[in-house]
Amino acid sequence: MKLSARNQISGKITEIIKGATTSHVGIDIGGKVITASITNEAVADLKLKVGEHATAIIKASDVMVGV
Hints:
The protein is mainly β and about 70 residues long. The chain has one helix at about 40-45; strands spanning about 5-20, 20-30, 35-40, 55-60. It is globular, with a radius of gyration of 13 Å.
């Protein structure tokens, strides 16, 4: 599948924490972890499992930087 989003970062799933309706999926991208909040249904549909490869796809209208 091709996507228009250019911010695609590959990594390995480190954790999946399921809540009532939403799961937090941690993806290690080389020593740093990106956490995505997605529905439990999406976790099941994508058959996500800890240790498997995944890609974080980031589409945002704003990115803020602070120092």
